[in-house]
Amino acid sequence: MSTTKEMKTATASTMQSAYHPFDQLTGDEIIQVAAITRQAKPTIDFVFNTITLKEPKKDIMLSYLGWDTSKPRITNVEREALVIALEKKTMKCYEGLVSLSSNTLKTWKYIPDVQPILTMDEMFDVEELVIKDEKVRQECLELGITDMSQVFSDPWAIARHLSHPGREKRMMQALMYMRTCEDDNQYAHPLDFVPIIDLGRMEVVSIERIRPRDSKFTRPTIPTQNHNFLPEFVGEENYRKDVKPLIIQQPQGVSFTVKGSEIDWQKWNMRISMNYREGLVIHNVSYQDGAEKRPLFYRISLSEMVVPYADPSAPHYRKHAFDVGEYGLGLCTNSLALGCDCLGSIYYFDANFNDHEGKPFHVPSAVCLHEEDYGILMKHTDYRNGRAHTIRSRRLVVSQIVTVANYDYGLYYYFYQDGTFEYEVKATGELNTHVLAEDETTGGFGTIVAPQINAQYHQHFFTMRIDPMIDGQKNSVQQVDTYTLDYPTGHPKNLTGNGFTSKYTTLKDTKEGQSEANYATSRFWKIVNQDRTHPYAKTPVGWKINSGHTAPFYARHDSLVAERAGFAKKTLWVTPYDEDQMFAGGFYCNQSGGDDTVEVWANRNKQNIEQEDIVLWYTFGITHLPRVEDFPIMPVEYCGFTMKPCNFFIANPALDVPPSNIKVNRSVLANADKKDDCCSNKL
């Protein structure tokens, strides 16, 4: 993560009126929170794990935002921060609630048997510790490595270690690699041992060797062939010479407006925020439908994700990364580069997070906002007279990119002119690799992408937390299945056998609200407001949600990873709104046992979800059986989901999008002289 340290002097909270209640904490506020906490707890020697905005309660915000008109509108909201701190000697975890409005520590409590998120400070400390450890040095000597500056590690969460069960100790594991020179691709040189680190003692407590499974060798050699992709290794002379510039321009400026963290684009309105864990969050989404501003979603975020690996042997069974709950997408966010990560006319938002001392670090250009052409939105040609009517599609893109060790994820929120919302993940970066002995096989759990380099099978699951308010706070979910008529061909009700129909099932409680994708019935779900009926369709107004990327969860449902990642077992969970249920894998996900997950909440007791304030937990993902073509760096793999208005508007809401023409977009014929192009001459 590229960051710029920001050290400021704490200021009084006189600027709070300038902040919207959803705005992330500023650098000054982070310093202020740390000072208040230290002053209130001078006897505890702790480090700041997390300092983040404590979002106001939903009922307060619904009034503040103007959606709840049942009582006088709230115009002043207390600004609060959540503090998570670790006592240095004991690694005991404390939670504090700080009021920035009154400069007080309102609450402080010890939270037993938990381990909070792993921080960048800890990862850097572990990397430094590992290469200085004598046991690690001895392992490297046996492998022929004498220069420890060539040795690198990726610190990983330990999941649940059989020799270190529970959460009393704060633990990590380090996956080991070597580089032959600076900026060499370390994943081309994996090592065969894993140090286990006690963060409380800051000590390597043991080392695990990864034994070859079907080899005459007791230990593999290090693959020394380089596999690089950076420009200085590829060489400018080897780049393609037939790639000409593709320039995206908006000569009259952008079509969106930004005020603080509020975004207006055509008929869409929303707010964004950044936090250490979910990263980019979308708040208070509405759509202007004629004279009516219609509420759609209170809050949308990537709540959790898990990447379970397929190899059941040690230590690979512990490789199931919860990149949201264990590392934090905010903490792992990139500082984006103009002209590389985002093209065209770009608006950037920055982000602020904290280090262990309670000082802010600033990530410039953490969120990218821009518009993209997206091909044809709609078109019809009258075959009788040849008249064609074409409307090109444009979408608003709000995005961030995160790097979590070897993997990079582009996370994209798309808003379209026809009311469609889409979320897309672009997975790229480098494969997590494991060394093989010269005669060793993958055992059926991976792909040999280069000599002695095994890229193990794995999956990526992403669970979105969708808090809807479709035309109001009370919503329901319908499951929609399409099926062939039961009547055989020749039956009076299906004479020619072509009949099929659909079935709408309203999910009434948290037991029914657990559902899986079904390609046989083209299943999708519809979020509806049963208090408002569409005048034409005579059905509740709503929005449909579906995805073409709903992979089955291949780990057994009583496995270690399934216990911790129960959210991945189903495509959809629906639960009543609970302000303490924000993360599908639990708030304290690190080293968790799976006792605080959406699976547990949904099965604890049967709760009503029909025409209530509900939350949808929607899981999508991909199964990755690596290809040789994914090495040394992986082309993007795409996955995501869409939500579309479904009997919500009175007609196509994009009818008022202007038709496309070359005077506006300045298209030219590739095989014609520019002077013969009428548009280029006139504009």
TrEMBL record:
Key words, A-Z: Copper, Disulfide bond, Manganese, Metal-binding, Oxidoreductase, TPQ
Keyword Disulfide bond in record: yes
Post-translational modification: Topaquinone (TPQ) is generated by copper-dependent autoxidation of a specific tyrosyl residue.
UniProt-annotated catalytic positions: 323, 407
Residues with PTM 2',4',5'-topaquinone: 407
Record flagged with keyword Disulfide bond: yes
Residue intervals of the Copper amine oxidase catalytic domain: 248-655
NCBIfam families linked: PRK11504.1
Quaternary structure, from the entry: Homodimer.
Protein name: Amine oxidase
